[in-house]
Amino acid sequence: MKATATANSNIALVKYWGKRDERLILPQNSSISMTLDGLYTTTTAEFSEKHRKDEVTIDGKKVAGEELDRVVRQLNLVRRLAKTHLSAKVTSKNNFPKAAGLASSASGFAALTLAATKALGLHIEKKELSMLARQGSGSACRSIYGGFAEWVKGSHHDGSDSYAKQLAPKEHWPELAMIVSVVTAEEKKVKSRAGMSQTVANSPMYRAWLETVEEDLKNVREAIMERKFTQLGTAAELNALKMHATMHTTTPHIIYWQPETITMMKEVMQMHEEGIECYFTIDGGPQVKIVCMDKNAGKIAKRVKGMAEVEKVYVCHAGEGARLSNKELF
Amino acid sequence: MKATATANSNIALVKYWGKRDERLILPQNSSISMTLDGLYTTTTAEFSEKHRKDEVTIDGKKVAGEELDRVVRQLNLVRRLAKTHLSAKVTSKNNFPKAAGLASSASGFAALTLAATKALGLHIEKKELSMLARQGSGSACRSIYGGFAEWVKGSHHDGSDSYAKQLAPKEHWPELAMIVSVVTAEEKKVKSRAGMSQTVANSPMYRAWLETVEEDLKNVREAIMERKFTQLGTAAELNALKMHATMHTTTPHIIYWQPETITMMKEVMQMHEEGIECYFTIDGGPQVKIVCMDKNAGKIAKRVKGMAEVEKVYVCHAGEGARLSNKELF
User: What's the pLDDT at A100?
Assistant: First the structure.
C-alpha cells in the first residue's frame, strides 16, 4: 500500500497551449517534449486506514487549498480504478524550484500517478498511465516517457485517445543538450492553467497559433527523428514566441517575461551570432531554456552563469521516463 | 528659396504596421496618433544654384548613404512639383534622440516637406502635404496635423486617397498626457521599414493583426471624440502588443524590447494596480510611452524618473501641427 516513484520534468519543443476540455484536460493541439535528466520529482504515496484524510507534503511543506485539491482529485481517479476509499499520505520532493516555469507539475503529477497506482496494486500500461497523469496536469503525460515524447491531442470527447507516446528514447540523441537557468525562483502570479483558458477565450492571435502548430509539430518530429539540430531549434524558438504572442495579446495581457528573460534571449541571440549555435524556448514563466549541442553546453552554461540575473544553471540531456524507486520519503 | 519649418513627433495609438506598396508607402491598415507638444524637429531648406548637390545635416552631422538617399528622394518629389532642378542645403535639428523609437522620422519628414515646398514657393493644402510627407516616411503624414490625426489607408493604387486628416485639435483634450521616457538612446539595429516588410511577408500572426485593427480604430476614434480615457488606453495597449506579437513571430524574429522595456511595462501595470490609471504603448524600439491623465502625469513622471534604467523623461500633451518658422538654422 506504499510506493515511491521518480519522474523527470520535460520541456516542450512544441508547446501545449489551450484546452478543449477543462475537466478532462484535453488539449487544443498536440505537443512534443524532451524529458530532462537533471530535473525530477520523487513522490511516496501510502494508502492506509490510519490516514483519516489525504495529507500532502511538497518540499517539506504541508499543502492546502487549490494545490491540495488538485492532488486529491488525482488520488480520487486512482482510487476509483482500484475501487478503494482509503486516504493517502503523500510526500513529494523536487530537486528544483517549483512553480517557476520549470515544469514541476509535469514531473510531480507523473511521479504521483505512478506511485499511487503502484501503491494500490494496479498494473497499468504506460499509455493508460499517461492518460491518468494527463488529468492531473496536461504536460505530465509526457513525463511518463524518457527521451522525446509526443502528446497526441486526440479527438474523442471522453479523452480516450489523448495520450503521450515516445518518439525516441534518450539514447537516440545524447548529443542534444538543454540548459535550464533559473532567473528568478519566485512563484508565478498567473498559473499556466488560468492563463491558458483566458488566451483561448480572447486572444486575437490564438487562431493563428492553432493554424500553424501542425507545421511546427511536423518540423520538430522530423528534426528529432533525423537529428537535425538547426531545424529543431528554429522551429522550437518560433513555437515558443508564438505561444507568448497569444498571451501578450489576451485581455488582460499576460506577460510572463521579466527583464531577465529579455537579457537571456538577447544573450542567446548574441552567442548564436558569434557562431555558437543555440536557440531559446520559454514556457509559462520567466525562465529561458537554451537548446544546444552537447559540445557547446559547457561554454554556454559558463556564459549564462556569468550573468548577474542568473541564480542557478542546470545542464540537461534527454532523461529517463517515470520509474519506481525504493528510496521512500517517509 | 529658403524656408524653415517645425513639426512635432507623433505617437500612434493604433499603429501603422505593414505596407501594401513599398515605393509609394501605402499602408496595410489605417492608423491614429497623437501629435506631441514636447518632441519636435526644425528644418531649414534652401534651394540655390550655389549648391552643386544636395547636402543634408542632421543634429550637426552630415548624413550620407541610405539616410541621405531618403532625404534626396523626398526633395526630388518636391522639385518635380515645382519644376526645378536646383540642389538644396538642408539642416535639421531634433530636440530628442533620433532613431530610438521616438518617431524622429515622422517629425523630420513632416518638417522637411513643409520647409522644402515653401522654399520652392509651392502653396499646398494640408491634405496634399500629408500625402507628400507620407512618401518620405509613412507616419510623417500624421505629423502635419496637431492634436489627433488619422492616416486613412485608402484603396487606390496611386496613393491618391492615402492621406492623414485631423480627428480633433489639441484643444479638444488637453487633460490627456503622454509620458515618453528614453530607456536607451541607442539607434536601433533593425529599422522599422525593414522589420515591417519582413513581418508582412512571414509572421503567422500578421493576418490576425489586420483582421482586428478595424476594431481598434473604431474604439480609439470613439474614445478620442468622446474623451473616454479607459477605452483609449485599453485599446492602445492591446494594439501595441499585437504589433509586437507580429514582430516576435516573424522569421528571423524581431525583438525590439530590451530588459528595460519589460521593467517599464511592469511598472505601468504596477501603478495601474495601485489605482493610478495608466497604459503603455511601444513602437518599433525599446521605448515605453505611458498614456495617462494630466492630473497623474507628475506623479507618474516622478516614478519613472526614479527608475535606474531611465535616461530622460518627457511629459507631453497634444501638440501643434507642422508650421513655418522664422528661426533659420543657417
Answer: 59
